[in-house]
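hiii, so i know i said id send this last week but things got crazy w the move. better late than never?? heres the sequnce for the chain we talked about at the cafe, plus the structure i predicted for it. fair warning i was half asleep when i ran it
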Amino acid sequence: MNLVFTLLASIGLGLFVPKRHAAVLAYLVLDSFLFTFQTLDVLLNWMSAKDGMGGAKAFGPFPSAIPIAYEPSEVFAYGVVNLVIIAVGVGLTIGANKLATRREAAKNSVSVG
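okay and structure toks below
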């Protein structure tokens, strides 16, 4: 979910929002809401013993009692992977914005000849 959003939204915002800092901020705000829902979906699927995409289990074996047993390294890995996805999204937003800025400048330039 976050990967698809990152590819579509970061490039779209970079191309269509003229100010770079506003495009990056818009991406981060939108992604923060999506990340919250994605995390809740992963957690609830794991707690209700449902497999995720491709049959993957989010944090090891399904919980069977409270307190829930989990590996802290798996939670850390989830955070790191999502941080990398966000960093890629910010990079794509900046890159797409630079591309749009160059195209606009080339369109507005007048060649003397």
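btw DSSP finds three helices and no strands in the chain. thought thatd interest u
miss u guys!!
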